[in-house]
Specification:
The protein has 665 residues and is α/β, with parallel strands linked by helices. The chain is built from 22 helices and 27 strands.
């Protein structure tokens, strides 16, 4: 171990338990929840194996009055949940790590769509995502809440958790009591106690019942402005009842900020004072991927434990790699929030950098180990974009000889272009990590500036080919709004996305039609506006970059575009082009108006570059696969996953089938 980082591997006492090091996987959503205990336990187990000293659950409901369907959540409602959670703690303990659980009641945030229990909160207020309200909690409700929370804490102890949370952050029930804008009660649970009486009671209940064996943690926001002093006083007064402070900030878009807008260590200014207030161990996040940044946080007394969600997803073995001095092997998080986006969609989390995430139980995949080859090969991989790089690397790690051919000089494919968009430089890590690992594999032979066609492949006499030649943005308008395209888009002023990304500075009038709804259209608009151009972004959705709402960045996207003077035309399509104009049509009324247009860029759909794959049909190859965008254009995470899957499955007659969790009757 590099002695510089020995501080990060010191044990930390947390109440009655001791964390083996300072690497702390904070509670984070998984998209798995109580319905997938095997999937969940296997995923957490890999993190413990990778060296995370503490591994926590996601938010864990204490009672049916806190039901977040359709979003997957953990639960400790009954003994069946105890058995499911014990599966996780057993696997985490196997590697000497501590297991933590974040007990949760959402108050006005969940809708209770499945349980149909009446939502309840500090006041009768609108439920976050449904057209109904909560019940104002009376004394009986508060008594029941304390009882439910205590019973869940006792179940947590029976499930062998080492750390048990009280959750008073992120706008959930206890945070609703602490919020002076929401809490207008005139009893002892209102303003007279700063809304904190219930929080103190629940902490006291837990400490008496489980505090001798389990550490008591609290997840709570700091405050700013006029509320800061009161919140700091609260933190100080809570310290005698709390063994660990997990500190967050009020803005979730900062805590969970994408790299496009938020860089590493962004919470330091808000959380650095908490340690001096409490004299208790403090953990917080910052999307830390740099060992030097982590060490600095501890050395300067900002944090005692390095909190991580996304970095632990991108590389579950990050702690072990630091311990072993394998810094170049760290698979750094790129801050795209595809992990969070899948949870927002009600699906198990995915990761652009780590294609094995969520597949540990289902497919038997592991981030550091692959299935050894049955002896087939060699394999020619054509194209060194994200899918081709991942396929070549996976095949090589399996012991298969690989030839990787790329038509251009630079590896990376679409990543090379997209990482040059404003704020997306960290996305280049997808390319850089894989290129670094490929260079270590003696059985992967690399051919740059090597255009491959059917004839050249035939001359090689190779039997196994994977075509990873990517895709290109269409210019004919085919997409969600116009499945057959728009004839007038065949105009001299129409420019492809790829060409628009090369635009020089100037003052031209750009119209971007974003029918894709993720980051390309909005990032391109930002880039052009920063280059001095006048930009109009047209979208059939009601907001710019609609899909980026799933990745917790849409508000920042819209704010950025508006601040740059981008003209947003929502609920609209570009219905036609004129000689120097575009016709904008409302998707609801059909009304049209004409706007000046010097350059038109349709961001609608992509055409797979699959001609080579077509040409290789019926040529007698034993294996011919099209992978990544060449087969089905998508997000980078899907291309990496497809590359890994094809690399893992090639020639593996004995590979594990796909497992499925289900309820048995």
């Amino acid at each position: 171990m590099d002695s510089r980082f020995s501080l990060l591997f010191e044990p930390v006492k947390i109440g009655p338990v001791v964390a083996p090091n300072r690497f702390y996987q904070v509670p984070h959503c998984t998209g798995m929840g109580y319905a997938m205990p095997q999937t969940l336990a296997a995923m957490r187990e890999v993190k413990a194996e990778g060296g995370w000293g503490v591994v926590n659950t996601e938010y864990c409901s204490i009672h049916p009055t806190s039901d977040d369907v359709p979003y997957p959540f953990a639960s400790l409602w009954d003994e069946g949940d105890v058995r499911s959670q014990a599966l996780m703690t057993e696997k985490v303990h196997r590697f000497g790590s501590l297991a933590g659980v974040e007990l949760w009641h959402g108050g006005a945030r969940p809708s209770n769509l499945h349980s149909r229990e009446v939502p309840m909160s500090v006041e009768s207020i609108p439920v976050a995502n449904s057209p109904w309200q909560t019940r104002r909690m009376d004394r009986e409700d508060i008594k029941n809440l304390r009882k439910w929370h205590l019973e869940a804490a006792i179940r947590a102890r029976r499930a062998n958790f080492d750390i048990v949370y009280v959750y008073a952050a992120h706008g959930y029930l206890l945070a609703q009591f602490l919020n002076p804008e929401l809490n207008g009660r005139d009893d002892e649970y209102g303003a007279s106690s700063g809304g904190a009486k219930l929080l103190f009671e629940m902490l006291e209940d837990m400490r008496e019942a489980i505090g001798d064996r389990c550490a008591i943690a609290i997840r709570i926001d700091v405050a700013r402005g006029q509320d800061k002093d009161a919140r700091d006083q609260l933190l100080t007064s809570l310290a005698p009842l709390v063994d660990l402070f997990d500190i967050t900030v009020p803005e979730y878009s900062l805590e969970m900020g994408v790299s496009r807008f938020t860089k590493e260590g962004s919470l330091e200014a808000d959380v650095s004072h908490v340690k001096s207030l409490t004299n208790k161990p403090v953990v917080s996040v910052g999307r830390f991927t740099s060992p030097e940044s982590m060490l600095s946080q501890v050395k300067r007394g900002v944090l005692d434990l390095i909190g991580a969600a996304r970095p632990s997803i991108a590389d579950p073995f990050l702690p072990n790699k630091i311990r072993e001095g394998r810094f170049e092997d760290i698979r750094e998080c790129i801050g795209c929030n595809i992990c969070y986006g899948h949870n927002s969609l009600g699906a198990p989390l995915r990761c652009t950098q780590n294609p094995t995430m969520g597949e540990e139980w289902r497919r038997g995949w592991h981030p550091e180990r692959v299935t050894k080859s049955d002896g087939q090969g060699p394999v020619l991989v054509v194209g060194a974009g994200p899918a081709g790089l991942e396929a070549a690397l996976t095949l090589g790690r399996r012991g298969i000889d690989v030839m990787l051919a790329e038509a251009s000089r630079q590896f990376g494919g679409r990543v090379n272009i997209e990482s040059r968009l404003p704020g997306l430089s960290e996305w280049g890590r997808v390319r850089d990590w894989r290129v670094t690992q490929i260079e270590k594999q003696a059985n992967i032979e690399v051919f740059r500036e090597s255009f491959m066609d059917a004839q050249s492949i035939s001359e090689l006499g190779i039997e196994h080919v994977m075509v990873a030649t990517g895709s290109r943005w269409r210019v004919d308008g085919r997409g969600r709004s116009f499945p057959a395209g728009v004839a007038s888009y065949a105009s001299p002023m129409t420019q492809s996305v790829e060409d628009a990304m090369k635009a020089a500075a100037g003052t031209r009038d750009y119209v971007i039609f974003d029918d894709d709804h993720y980051y390309i259209g909005t990032a391109l608009a930002e880039m052009l506006a920063l280059s001095g151009h006048r930009v109009m972004l047209v979208t059939p959705q009601g907001r710019a970059g609609h899909w980026s709402g799933y990745t917790a960045e849409q508000a920042n996207v819209q704010k950025r575009l508006l601040s740059l003077g981008v003209n947003l035309r929502t609920n609209s399509v570009v219905a036609a082009l004129g000689p120097d104009s575009a016709e904008i049509e409302c998707v609801y009324t059909g009304r049209r108006d004409t706007v000046l247009c010097g350059v038109f860029v349709p961001v609608t759909s992509r055409e797979p570059n699959d001609q080579l794959w077509r040409d290789l049909q019926d040529t007698g190859l034993t294996t011919l696969r099209r992978i990544g965008d060449c087969g089905a254009p998508g997000i980078i995470a899907q291309a990496v996953y497809d590359g890994h899957r094809n690399g893992e499955e090639f020639g593996s007659a004995n590979r594990q089938g796909v497992m499925r969790e289900r309820a048995f009757v």
